């Protein structure tokens, strides 16, 4: 079981195994941190919180592809996926209309999808150490 740091609106902070019923009620999780967990894909547990998730940290893993379901996380404001094995950003990134910060540094990304401009709130893109040509 990989470590997971969750922050809820009720300020529960710590390393927890994802469980939506550990207090007899659904937790409202806004931050998930899966950094340095040796992951090859985005954990499915992330999608349990797609309505409330605001920040997702997947730093320093071996993720090669972002799943389509990730782009259903409409409340997502910060997506941090540096130091992974991504070669491209999917066009579905345009559906993250509330995204403000995107960190894709230290990957293999060569270009940005044209429709990233649909992310009207996006103010910070960290894309250093990528072979970006476009």
UniProtKB/TrEMBL annotation:
Keyword NAD (UniProt): no
Alphabetical UniProt keywords: Leucine-rich repeat, Repeat
Domain of life of the source: Eukaryota
GO terms classed as biological process: cell-cell adhesion; establishment or maintenance of epithelial cell apical/basal polarity; neurotransmitter receptor transport postsynaptic membrane to endosome; neurotransmitter receptor transport, endosome to postsynaptic membrane; positive regulation of neuron projection development; receptor clustering
GO molecular function: protein kinase binding
A GO CC term attached to the entry: adherens junction
Pfam family, one: LRR_8
SUPFAM superfamilies from the UniProt entry: L domain-like
PANTHER family tied to this protein: DISCS LARGE (PTHR23119), LEUCINE-RICH REPEAT-CONTAINING PROTEIN 7 (PTHR23119:SF48)
Protein name: LRRC7 protein
Organism of this sequence: Psophia crepitans (common trumpeter)
Upper classification of the organism: Eukaryota, Metazoa, Chordata, Craniata, Vertebrata
Gene giving rise to this polypeptide: Lrrc7_0
């Amino acid at each position: 079981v990989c470590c997971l740091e969750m922050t809820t609106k009720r300020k529960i902070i710590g390393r927890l195994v994802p469980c939506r019923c550990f207090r007899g009620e659904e937790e409202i999780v806004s931050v998930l941190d899966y950094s340095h967990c040796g992951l090859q894909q985005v954990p499915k547990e992330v999608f349990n919180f797609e309505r409330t998730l605001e920040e997702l940290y997947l730093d320093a893993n071996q993720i090669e592809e972002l799943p389509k379901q990730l782009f259903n996380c409409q409340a997502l404001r910060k997506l941090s996926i540096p130091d992974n094995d991504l070669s491209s950003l999917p066009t579905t990134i345009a559906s993250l209309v509330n995204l403000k910060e995107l960190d894709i540094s230290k990957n293999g990304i060569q270009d940005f999808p044209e429709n990233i401009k649909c992310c009207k709130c996006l103010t910070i893109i960290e894309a250093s150490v990528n072979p970006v040509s476009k």
